Amino acid sequence: MGFISSNRNNEQLLSKIATNDGHGENSSYFEGWKAYDSDPYHSTQNPNGVIQMGLAENELCFDLIQEWVQNNPKASICTAEGANEFKEIAISQDYHGLPEFRQGVAKFMGKVRGDRVTFDPDRIVMSGGATGAHETLAFCLADPGDAFLVPTPYYPGFDRDLRWRTGTQIVPVVCESSNNFKLTKEALEAAFQKATEAKIRVKGLLITNPSNPLGTILDRDTLKTLVRFTNDKNIHLVCDEIYAATVFNQPGFISIAEIIEEELYCNRDLIHIVYSLSKDLGFPGFRVGIVYSYNDQVTSCARKMSSFGLVSTQTQHLIGSLLSDDIFTEKFIAESADRLAKRHEIFIKGLAQVGIGSLKSNAGLFFWMDLRRLLKEPTIEAETALWRLIIHEVKLNVSPGSSFHCSDPGWFRVCFANMDDDTVKIALRRIRNFVLQRKGLDQGPAKRPCWQNKLQVSLSFRRLDDFVMAPHRMSPHSPISSPLVRARN
Amino acid sequence: MGFISSDHNNEQLLSKIATNNGHGENSPYFDGWKAYDSDPYHSAQNPNGVIQMGLAENELCFDLIQKWVANNPKASICTAEGANEFKDIAIYQDYHGLPEFRQGVAKFMGKVRGDRVMFDPDRIVMSGGATGAHEMLAFCLADPGDAFLVPTPYYPGFDRDLRWRTGTQIVPVVCESCTNFKLTKEALETAFQKATEAKIRVKGLLITNPSNPLGTVLDRDTLKTIVRFTNDKNIHLVSDEIYAATVFNKPGFISIAEIIEEETYCNRDLIHIVYSLSKDLGFPGFRVGIVYSYNDQVTLCARKMSSFGLVSTQTQHLIGSLLSDDIFTEKFIAESADRLAKRHEIFTKGLAQVGIGSLESNAGLFFWMDLRRLLKESTIKAEMALWQLIIHEVKLNVSPGSSFHCSEPGWFRVCFANMDDDTVKIALRRIRNFVLQSKGLDQGPAKRQCWQSKLQVSLSFRRLDDFVMAPHMMSPHSPISSPLVRARN
Question: What ipTM was reported for this prediction?
């Protein structure tokens, strides 16, 4: 009793999980986000601001969505036409999900794969976005201390999703630019052996296909190699296919769902797919994550766990209607691919003209830009220095390869689907100018301090929560200075 | 390589979490749900079916909600008036949440407490329902093996929410009917000591106020005793206030938020509130869970964790609009309390007339019915036998006290806010008839066989996933036979 000081040691009060770095936000990459956040590009209000090219968002087809929404008022429980369902929808808390939602998602997943495979609506399990799906699968498939093999470069959010609250580990499978980042059997075996020698039990392999950040898809041979590998080792194969509908050029997408129809020896109890509507449809705010497992027990367990992150029935209802409309979905998939292809081409060609190459890719909302020749030396430090230059001088927020655990410095992920056509032109112009300037430029020490000082100041006053998160993580915008917030206020 | 049998031992393939019973669904209480599920009451189609009184849902005020929705089309992103915001809302994935959502929820929480306290919108953190909120706090406040004290009887979902994936434990604080289930300092000290002797580290106390299943509110003295206790022990106090707006009679609700304004010695870093819109507003499908912590670090950590269970922005937008409308919320809170009071009175009076008492209560969507005198003996077994009688003969699905870990057999939770007025009459009639019959009835063995046999049959063929979950858990309806599903097909 008596007066207790509020200066208690939070380290003892809170859990280890709450006080470790497993959330992944204590990274130096926040500088780029801080720069963007404090100086965001706006065509009229801030034409010299930083252009956001670090967010893998798909904003190209909202006109199609909005047209559909307008023509289908019953998809909403708030319109005059749909309001009679409000109560039933608002009180439905069944973790199986609304039947039309599951049917719509299953059908859409099939359509995205050219109807070469069908998906069972009863295997559609909800989760809190793909973020929640990955964590749920980690909880289902692995015990604390167990590991998942993950090919590099990979989406940094996996570090948090797979490991933070679950206690599992990630063992990287190194893919190198020398063979275009192909995922080889040798790399898989090397990683598996490394884990085994370290007495780490490998429970599964997680592949992202189409790849983030590469924008490439896995060919049939590689997929078969993967299935053979995991089946032999009796470990799980988790396929994150959230970019499936962003494939915009040949070769076409091959899903793991198709491979297991061909590789009949394969034990389906080991096969699981993660899906989401955040990339293919452009709905990250709706938090529609899907776990699709061929293992009955995993399906059952994941469904129980979905209680921690179900999709709002208001949204289930809208999505169920939207995705049941075959005419719309077929048109959308085709048109979206077309627009992505055009955007991709504008950038790739524009950069090629100034000698900037990128990994040849046919999918994703980004491309993997090769700036290795601009590095002073092939090190992460040089890459980080170049990145700071790009943020502060070129005024573009792109994502450095090291944030994706890429083994070769000098690669940058550049997102192209989250801006309008005019911004595309400006972004392209800035990159081209920078490259052309750089050819003749010798950056003396005197030229650097300016933004370096600004950086040091910002580091001293850094409050973690004011940071905009790295694009490949959740929730990029700080509420204080995000343009979205500004538009609102 | 070779043909692998699919008869792999899932026990080795999957995690311990996936193969243990932490999800809480392997309980004998599913028999009642099975009975309801296979024979659900419908006024016209199945008038002799089982009436659902095990679901704590609030269906009394949807007319008010629907009227508001019809008059406020801009609250939806699908109406003509609101569609211009569709894209902004759909792509917004900031885990801080839409400002208007946080402001609306903070304001509503204040109004529910008669504006005696205010809530800071910047402390509003989202979660996957209250289910997600409880798990999130357990992850933040405790390490595996640590324990939370929880007064009995308590909502059975806590067994899963606090323990399943987190590895924490629950140590019950026994409250007894002889003191009207009052939470005493002695009971708290006893439980704490018991944990200490068992070398279990207690990290916090979780109270539910208003109480589920009791329907009572904690008085000022008890709240002060609780705060003094947790502060002294330097353990967290988590206050689940999800039934705050269901207080329908005097005495009024006193929130922990008010107590800490009075008990200024208290360390606020230990105080956390769980809230949700599932009970007060009747929106369990929308998955609006809230963690409100007075501890900055917990707020930060919970916000990062909210990535695993954010509220759909489509729903945030609707809720933000709804709860910003003071005229609506004030009217709703008053009208809802009024209707709950009337419902409560109909039941408690109707039962009193046949000599059935219940714990005096002034809150919640249920009452705590006292059937101790109908038990053959004061044991859980006798309570279960009586329960099965009520399900199969009286055709009411109520929840037995043992499912809430009540220390004394014979109490049953009866929900009254999830049905229309006609069903209320029928339910009441059935209970009254049963009680009156029971007075003169000697249930010979022959009469029991009938439903006992059915029960044994259902146990043999039980497939866990076909079960409707216990009402106090998530997702009560099996998709196969739920009336909701039937209505749809």
Answer: 0.89
B8 chain-A contacts, CB cut-off 8 A: 234, 267, 269
Q: A27, exposed or middle or buried, with CB in 10 Å at 0-12, 13-18, 19+?
A: middle
- Tens-digit pLDDT profile for residues A56-113: 999 999 999 999 999 999 999 999 999 999 999 999 999 999 999 999 999 999 999 9
Q: Rounded CA gap, A112 and A105, in Å?
A: 10
| Residue A119 identity (one-letter amino acid) | F
List, as ranges, residues 186-205 from A with C-beta within 8 Å of B. Answer: 203
In which order are the strands placed within the sheet that holds A147-151? Answer: A124-128, A288-293, A271-276, A236-240, A202-208, A147-151, A169-173
What letter would DSSP give residue B392?
I
Instruction: Pick the closest to residue A390 from A401, A378, A377, A406 (CA basis).
Output: A401
Residues within 8 A of B (CB atoms), A 330-369 only: none
CATH number listed for the domain at residues A28-62+331-437: 3.90.1150.10
For B72-328, CATH gives 3.40.640.10
Distance CA B28, CA B37 (A): 15
Q: In Å, how far from its chain's centre is CA B168?
A: 20
B242 is catalytic: yes
Cβ distance A91 to B282 less than 8 Å, yes or no, reads yes
Instruction: Calculate helix-pair angle for B185-197, B220-233, nearest 10 degrees.
Output: 30
CB contact under 8 A, A95 and B475: yes
Residues counted in chain A: 489
- Decide: B412 and B44 in contact? Cβ < 8 Å: no
Three-state SS at B463: coil
pLDDT in tens, A149-181: 999 999 999 999 999 999 999 999 999 999 999
| Helix (H), strand (E) at residue A339 | helix A326-352
CA distances to A196, B36, B224, B273, B450 from B259, rounded to whole Å, are 55, 42, 7, 13, 54
**Joined tokens for residue A44:** 């009229």
Number of residues that this document lists for chain B: 489
Angle between the N-to-C axes of helices A421-440 and A326-352, in degrees from 0 to 180, rounded to the nearest 10 = 20
| Chain B 64-93, residues with CB within 8 Å of chain A CB atoms | 65-66, 69-70, 73, 75-80, 83, 86-93
CB contact under 8 A, A308 and B135: yes
Q: Which residues contact A16 (CB under 8 A, 6 or more apart)?
A: B143
In three-state form (DSSP H/G/I as H, E/B as E, the rest C), the secondary structure along A115-135 is: CCCCCCHHHEEEEEHHHHHHH
DSSP 3-state of A304: helix
Strands (E), B189-336: 202-208, 236-240, 271-276, 288-293
Give the torsion sign (CA, B295, B298, B304, B306).
Answer: negative
Enter the pTM of the model: 0.90
Phi then psi for residue B405, to 5 deg, are: 65, 30
Q: Could you tell me the pLDDT band of residue A10, with boundaries at 50, 70 and 90?
A: low
Q: Identify the architecture of domain A73-325 in CATH.
A: 3-Layer(aba) Sandwich (3.40)
Cα atoms in the Cβ-side hemisphere of radius 13 Å centred on B462: 21
What does the alpha-carbon distance between residue A473 and residue B307 come to, in Å, rounded to a whole number?
9
A137 Cβ neighbours under 8 A, 6+ residues apart: A238, A272, A274, A291, A293, A298, A302
Q: In which residue are the tokens 């994703």 written?
A: A364
SS3 A208: strand
Tokens encoding A220: 């049939």
Domain ranges of chain B: 28-62+331-436, 72-328
Name the strand (E) or helix (H) holding B112. helix B99-112
CATH superfamily of B28-62+331-436: Aspartate Aminotransferase, domain 1 (3.90.1150.10)
Kindly state the helix (H) or strand (E) to which residue A103 belongs, with its residue range. helix A99-112
Closest CA to A399 of A38, A33, A60, A39: A33
